[in-house]
Amino acid sequence: MGSQLDPGTVTYWNLFGGGDGSRMQTMEATYEKQKGPNSLQAATFAWGNPYYTKVSLATLGDAPPDVAVSHLTRQSNLAIAGLLEPITEDMLAMVGLSSSSFSPKVWEALAVNGQRYAIPIDTHPFVLYYNKDVCEKADLLDGDGNLKEIRGTDQWEAALEAAKKVTGSWGASVATVGDTATSWRWFQSLYSQQTGSTPWLGDGGRKLTYNEDLTIKTLDYIQSLTKKKLMPAITDYTGSQTLMFTGKSAFYLQGEWEITTAESIDGLKFGMVPVPTLFDQPACQGDSHTFVLPRMNRSEDQLKRALGFVKSLLDQSLTWAQGGHIPAYVPTLDSQQYKDLKPQSNYADAVNSVVYDAQAWYSGSGSNFENTVGAQFGLVQQGQATPAAALSTARDQLLVYADTKSPL
């Protein structure tokens, strides 16, 4: 274990690539500059299940890092397996933090059997990107050049129709093939906006608890948008964003992390807002990145050093927010610098309506659950399956996981 070999070094594992990875490296460098040479040993691993397997095996083998990153929806599995140290108010106070330092919505969502095992740095919701040039021609912008509010399915479809007249192609785009998570996020956002929607999983994943009628209704609506040719039925992750970037659609639905890609497109003028409320209440699928302390025998000095590293990264939340993520750290979230950060702060309200995936050993970001359900719902978007058939298949596949004893 790195901290045993060199007690002055904090070992840190994460799963950040692309723009997130570059920003995290900048934040790590700031910490090293503050603390001196050999103060940090950071490593980045492959995103998704391989990463969480590595963290679990390293902890079981008594060789974990001092600090690791975990999605909020995955930290509960690690905690239930006994692989994480609980985070207490006394521990937070060691570095000048408390539970009130974080967005209440995110902090409450972290609870696992009444305890906290993670420290959040952000919320990353599913959002709506818009091409300002297309929207201006379609009369969808207000006097300040921002997107006019879209509320309800009638206004949404009217906006897509107006945009399609400008683009000659599409009104909006979202990935339908090759990225099962996106299909799940789009569905979960609209499903959760409806009165009567219920979590998909209950009893720790041992039961399927979704509202069948609302699921069919939501899938019917999603499919209707492709049937009406307002959105493409077949497009992959890169293709869906390219349509908006090149003015072939006005809107693009994806996680806010693609802001880095959008900013790299020469001449593209774009904005970002929360997913429009098409039904009864605001809601969007999302997750949060958190810091966890894998279980090990730590001295008080080791604990304080690990928490001090986390505090240093939280203090740099504005750098992290530039990559699109909504800060969970209240001093940054409430700061004028963040409010001045555009378009990032324009969708900050999404933190109050974010919907996290239900807890189960097989759920969370990049999980078997998202891949299973998303694959079937993608077929609905493509017109390759009816909502009823897709739901039936997804249910049969999920029941295998629900009926399997948790390996944790």
From TrEMBL:
Q: Where are the transmembrane segments?
A: none
Q: Which Pfam families match?
A: SBP_bac_1
Keywords associated with the record = Sugar transport, Transport
Record's InterPro entries? Bact_solute-bd_prot1 (IPR050490), SBP (IPR006059)
Q: Does the keyword Transport apply?
A: yes
Q: Give the protein's recorded name.
A: Multiple sugar transport system substrate-binding protein
Q: Which organism is it from?
A: Microlunatus kandeliicorticis
